[in-house]
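Q: Sequence in, structure out?
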Amino acid sequence: MGTATESREPRPARVGGRDLRLRGARLDNALRMLAQAGKFNLVIRGELKTPVSVELTAVEPYDALVALAEAHGLAIRYRSQIVIVTPDEGDTRPPGKTDKIWVYR
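A: Exactly. Output:
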């Protein structure tokens, strides 16, 4: 059985491991920074203002983004060279609530 880094699922191209240290950064800003470091396109549904602290060493930016998103109950899809971050399937928001869509490149 392979590890996440050996997965055959579609993903952005690897750019090499990066070190990341954040204290109290907004989650959406952390995800955007990882997309820039990994040179991939990113779409985020909603505003993710939750403060996060991260300490990672020699990690691919996409792998770091997946770990950070999953730790905060978010789902990740990779489609047509775009990483899409949305609330997980168990989303319990009230019906009719609208979200803002943020696109980073």
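Confidence is low (pLDDT under 50) at residues 1-5, 93-98.
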